[in-house]
Each structure stands twice: as C-alpha cells, then as structure tokens.
Design a protein that fits this description.
- The protein is α/β, with parallel strands linked by helices.
- It is built from 11 helices and 9 strands.
- Helix 4 crosses helix 6.
- The chain is globular and about 55 Å long.
- GO terms for molecular function: hydrolase activity.
- It comes from Cryobacterium cryoconiti.
- Keywords: Hydrolase, Membrane, Transmembrane, Transmembrane helix.
C-alpha cells in the first residue's frame, strides 16, 4: 500500500485506449455487428517505471532487502496464465528451487526395482508445495518483477516452494473484483494438471502470500468459495503482511483511518463514498469467512499506515470462526515486505510449511 498521492496516470494505457477508441469507434461498431466484439489485447504490466516500484518506498536495506539469493534458483519470466474478457493478458514469473540430484546407482540385476527408479509414492513425495505471490501498491501500481518482489519470489523458492509471482489488473483500468478474479485464475492455472506437472508442484498444496494491497487479495483468496482446499481457486494457506482487511465505512471512516487510505480504497472499489459502497463488504475478507477456510498468518507493524486494528480485528474474526491463525506484530512504522526481515521470514516460512506440508 503506497502512501503517496493519487495517480491519474496521464499518458497511461487507459488514456491511449480511449484515444484509439474515439478514432476507430465506427469501425469497431461495424466489426461487432458483423462478427462479435473482440477486445484489443493489452498487457497489465504498468506503463511507467515509477508505477512498477514496490510499496516499500524507503531506500533503506530493510525487510526483504536483507535476503541474499542462493545459487541454483531458476526464474521463468512472463509466463502467460490467462486472458480476461476485456483483453487483459495476464502473466506471472515462476521461481523454482534448486533441482535435487536423483540417485543413479543401479541395484542387483535380479532386483525388479532398480535403485534409480522412483516409485509412484516417491514421485508424489517429490512434488513441491506452491505459493502464489501477490505484490502490493495500492491496487494501482507495482509489478511482479520489481526488485523487491523478485526477492520475495526467490526467497520463497529458497524455502522449497515453487513460487508464482503474479501481475493483475490495476486501478484505474479495472476496479474490484477484477484483481481478485485475476489472482484466482492464477491459482486455477497453477493447479491445472499440465502446468502442475511442468513445474513439479503438488496441486493439493497451494498457498498464497501477499503484502499490502496484495495481502488483501491473498486474504480474499482464502475466503473465496468454501469446502475443499484442493479444488478450483481454493488455497490451503494464507500469509499476508500489512493488509487492509476491513474496507467498510465503520472500519475506515468511523475508525479514523488515514484519509489517503480511504481514497485508495474508494478508487479500488470504484465507489464515490464508503457509506453506500456495496462492494466494500465483498472486498473485506471478514465478511465472507467460513469455517472451511484455510489457516492465516498476519504480520504488521504497530505504528504503520494501515491501522493495527485491521490485523487485530481480522484475527478476532478468525478466532470466532474457528480458523487457525497466527498474528505477529513488530514495533515501528515499516510497511508490508519492509518487515520481512530474517526473523519474519522464518516465521512466515514455518507457517507455510506447517500448513502446506514439508
């Protein structure tokens, strides 16, 4: 969640598309009548370098920036995971752990199962858990491949997860629930048999990690749907840092959240006022919790931009619903992956391994 001013994105993709649409409106209408409307494809990658920066706006070496990438991690960039009805082409990066060397010794020729041959059980055990990684940036900026979130992706891989760092549609080009639909599609894509096989993941062990606005989307993935955590877009674990979790009038206006945060939320929801914003409840994870939802890890600073009550209130809702959860607070004002230092990384990793299995 970036605390900076508004971002009209003059010269952005949105304005360019409007200009083009105005110039060729008659041709588009004729084409639609003849053969059905075909939206112009566009990338959701932010147009300007400034829009690609992470929500960690400090220049200090804090949080995830203290991570040192080990050897052997591979990154597969800009893998397409879907195209939405409005023409948005969605991509992700895949960060994979080092490949373990398989045994090559041959057993006695009389042995029907040579040492180098893996059984079906061994093959299943070799499949890795996966984590969908969702960047922050006020739902309006940020990028899966910026320096900070690339470090998140490779850190998750260093912990033994196959990490999928995703891009999703951003404000003002799209408002809620577009971004949620995108990250849900990423889970479904990763779970699909062919894609799971390509990256060696267990489709029954998919978790999600997000920070700031991405933490909101991660938490919403955890409450999307009900029942089995191994089907469709369901995830088996949620870990988030500094997420706005209650977007209601009561929480933000009466709770005296910063005016800047209220405006960011209004842009995300596409509403003029929080008092009568019907989308606020659907975009607040506590409103859609049920007892079948996965365990949740919450991390936050005590004095940061997102009020502490967002995390403590959600922890209380999880408690009432009977959902396992862990709340970790740290002193100070650092936000999102700014608090993802070695100590926090250890806690998040332990949580994800506990929920997804070793």
């Amino acid at each position: 969640m970036n605390t900076g001013p508004g971002h009209p994105r003059f010269g952005s993709r949105r304005i360019r598309l409007v200009t083009v649409a105005g110039a060729v409106g008659i041709a588009v209408a004729a084409t639609a009548l003849l053969g059905g409307f075909r939206p112009q494809l566009y990338s959701v990658t932010p147009d300007e370098p400034g829009d690609q920066r992470s929500e960690l706006v400090t220049t200090q070496i804090v949080g995830i920036r203290t991570f040192e990438r080990p050897e052997g991690i591979t990154v597969d960039e800009d893998v397409e995971y879907g195209t939405q009805a409005d023409g948005a082409v969605l991509t992700l990066d895949v960060c994979s752990p080092p490949i373990a060397t398989a045994p090559t010794d041959l057993a006695d020729p009389a042995d029907p199962a040579p040492t180098g041959t893996a059984s079906a059980t061994e093959t299943a055990a070799a499949l890795r858990p996966a984590v969908i990684s969702i960047h922050g940036g006020s739902w309006a900026r940020g990028d899966k491949g910026n320096r900070d979130w690339r470090m998140v992706c490779t850190w998750l891989a260093s912990e033994g997860f196959v990490a999928y760092s995703v891009n999703y549609r951003l404000v003002p080009d799209a408002v809620f629930p577009a971004a949620l639909d995108d990250v849900a599609l990423a889970v479904e894509w990763a779970r699909a048999a062919a894609n799971a096989q390509t990256y060696g993941i267990d489709p029954d062990r998919i978790g999600v990690f997000g920070g700031s606005a991405g933490g909101n989307l991660a938490a919403l993935l955890g409450t999307r749907g009900s029942g089995s955590l191994t089907d469709g877009a369901r995830v088996a674990a949620v870990a988030e840092l500094s997420a706005p979790l209650d977007l209601s009038y009561q929480a933000l206006v009466r709770g005296r959240a910063p005016a800047g945060l209220q405006n960011i939320v209004l842009d995300y929801l596409g509403c003029d006022t929080l008092r009568n914003c019907a989308k606020a409840a659907a975009a607040s994870p506590a409103s859609t919790l049920d007892s079948s939802d996965p365990p949740v890890f919450l991390g936050t600073s005590t004095e940061e931009y997102i009020p502490l009550a967002q995390a403590t209130g959600y922890a209380a809702a999880l408690e009432r619903t009977g959902i396992d959860h862990e709340l970790v607070t740290v002193p100070g004002t650092l936000h999102s992956i700014g608090i993802l230092d070695a100590a926090m990384r250890e806690k998040v990793s332990a949580f994800l391994h506990g929920a997804l299995g070793e």
